Amino acid sequence: MAELREEHGRRRSRIAAGRREAVERQHRLGKRTARERLDLLLDVGSFVEVDLYRRGAGGGPHTDGVVAGSGTVDGRRVFVYAQDFTISGGSLGAQHAAKIQKVMDLAVATGSPIVALNDSGGARIQEGVLALHGYGGIFRRQVAASGVIPQIAVVLGPSAGGAAYSPALADFTFMVRDTAQMYLTGPDIVAQVTGERVSHADLGGADVHGSRSGVASFVHDDEESCLEGVRELLSLLPDNNLVPPPALPPCGAETDYRPRLAEIVPVEPNRPYDIRSVLAEVVDDGDYLEVHEHWARNVVCALARIDGHVVGVVGNQPVVLAGVLDISASQKAARFVRFCDAFGIPLVSLVDVPGFLPGTEQELGGAIRHGAKLLYAYCEATVPRVQVILRKAYGGAYIVMDSRSVGTDLSLAWPTNEIAVMGPEGAVNLLHRRELAASDDPARLRAALVEDYRSELMHPYHAAEHGLVDDVIDPVETRAAIARGLAVLRDKRAEPPRRKHGNAPL
């Protein structure tokens, strides 16, 4: 028995250590090994591995290029797999896929989040259709787990071909600059087919997906900060859709008045400000985790806590495109709203929106369809919802940003709010164009008509008088009013209609 145990220990150590030259090559590329990454992600000593001895077709190295199992993050159970680029470039074959599918099934069965550390050249060419079949089984499980357990993808190297779809199906995707690339067809194939020469970074690097395609939710400079970011995100997410997100003790938010809120937002509707300054005053300790920070920056989506409870915040950003909604902003906010609703995270909407971005590029690009995604997401949401109108809320964009008409539970407004079909100048130009054209002093007449329009239809209490705003509040009360509203709504129960599923305007 002693000899067997000794041999057993040597074998496990040898498998875990990997080939020295391959490990050294990985380090030279500025990348950690799969096991080193898991050590950074998980609590010390918590990792429990499965299928250490599994091998690919025709033998090959143990583990078949993926380390899989479970561990804890801040004491909470998560399931993980980390592709091992030192073995066959992390390529996916039948046994490799079977290991991933096993931990995915265990994650769903136990109601635990799953984190995928991706570093793979794609399907293993030698295994042909078996590799493709393996990917299909992973994708099917991801879709089945969507809205049931949180799914987080971390791209730490190449994620090419079919491998790129797994991060795209995840709830959140992290990427590391300089080492991560994600694309369906690489630069060589692009050059062969189109004649276009492009680098790996320009085709599918972290900054491309973080700022242009919107595939990457978070972009980090190195693996350490990236995996620490994953831990931070997990601290704000529930284990599954049947339990609430982890809460902290209340911190007195219901009586916390913030004088600075009366100074941040200019009264003048056309003067810009950073909505993140408002967000920092509203949430606990000014601490929030912004999702898609560099993509569609005219809307801000963030996870935070208010009085210890996790919330999702959506806010128009006046310093970028005046805070208008466009195709990308609608997609970004819609996906975030749907995630929060799926996992029982209440929604807070900070509204200061002049409308949808006009122009042929937007219209021909499907702005109507993409805007409808956000509309659909809010209409479908059954979690507690609080809307705060800070300044402008014009036209269809007002409706889309969780207005009373689409089901918000509590609508609050500042005394600076302007809710209307359009701005007063545009309205006057349309309604009184003949009078203005015939006037001897059109500028003076226009100013008078604008003032009349404001006083009759856009004064801050007009919507409240018609029951479309529940209260007009002092800006300094905003944090307290939101906290009180969420406390009232905490036990909200809303059953969706019985149906297989809706037909979202995808």
From TrEMBL:
EC number(s) from the headed UniProt entry: 6.-.-.-
Keyword entries, A-Z: Ligase
Entry keyword Ligase: yes
Residues of the CoA carboxyltransferase C-terminal domain: 255-499
PROSITE patterns the record matches: COA_CT_CTER, COA_CT_NTER
Alphabetical list of PANTHER family matching this protein: PROPIONYL-COA CARBOXYLASE BETA CHAIN (PTHR43842), PROPIONYL-COA CARBOXYLASE BETA CHAIN, MITOCHONDRIAL (PTHR43842:SF2)
Protein's name according to its UniProt entry: Acyl-CoA carboxylase subunit beta
Organism: Saccharothrix hoggarensis
